[in-house]
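Folds abound. Consider this:
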Amino acid sequence: MPAERLEMRRVREILRYRFEQGLGHKSIAIRVGAAPSTVRETLRRAAIAELSWPLGDDVSDAVLEGALHKAAGTKTGHRRSPEPDWALVHRELKRKHMTLQIPWDEYISRHPDGYRCSRYCDLYCGWAMKLPVTMRQDHAAGDKLFVDYAGDTVKRVLRRVGVTRRQLFDELDRPALRPLPVERYVFAEWRIRRAGLDYHVEIERHYYSVPYRFAREQVEARITANTIEIFHKGERIAAHRRSSGNGKHTTIPDHMPSAHRRFADWTIERIQREASAMGPNVALLCERILADRPHPEQGFRACLGIIRLNKSFGRDRVNGACGRALEIGARTYGSVRSILDNHLDRTTAPNGSASHEPIHHANIRGPRYYH
């Protein structure tokens, strides 16, 4: 019996080679990259399931797999051991040099009759699989040029063809020839991958998106020179133009949850443009917020919140509140909202400082200088 189930794509190839071309177990095994015993077991299961070739159009990969394999049973029962705080374990694992062995040692010291280490790890992995999806964001350091070198071109060597060879071709080879396929053959490579928590699949150091509902799912990638196609249980769920292995991400907006798409439509340039249209103080405050973050994208939420205050308070009041926030060194959306709610944007700052434009110069040391 095979050690693991074959992909249904390879099962279909086994059936085709057997019933359409009449190949033996060893020949089929070489072509599909499986052991002869696996091919033999697959054909045995197909015979028991009374499958015929070609398969009908209504036989999807899920139907085919269900016909070949019985559903695996699952064990149920009540957990009698104390349940660890998985959220705390998850936070601890983010620390440097932390592994599951360390929190388990602490757990078993408090509960000697608790879960053994292997069961503890299995339960944590099951808990972690239920975490919500995350959003992937690119942090470009600058424009780059990537050039792929394909190597020297192949030289064509012309040879003289004799009459005798032509006669042999007409007598032996030509009768066995078949018409060429309508579509040109495209070499493709298949790889098994698993979509990450950010619903992207890594292929050759580049990340391609799939619909977010397939996060953490095992998928198959069909890789050609120009395209990347991603399949889940025989169904194509994503198609991308192939990109170079630059560590970046290709994301289709329709693959993102609606909450992620709202942020994906905003860029640093758009935020600066919208803020400038509301007034110089809004533009300067948003510029300071983005500059104070290790990554400018981390300041998107605060800037978007400030810009959207225009709907409730009007452009002039928001601009005045941002000016007051700059005077007191505030850099958050909450501070601007508090100034507006308490009508502090209409008061004059002590010592008349509100009558002057805020000083912004590269030689002035800000609060980050002292930390």
User: Anything to note?
Assistant: The longest strand covers residues 235-241. The radius of gyration is 32 Å.
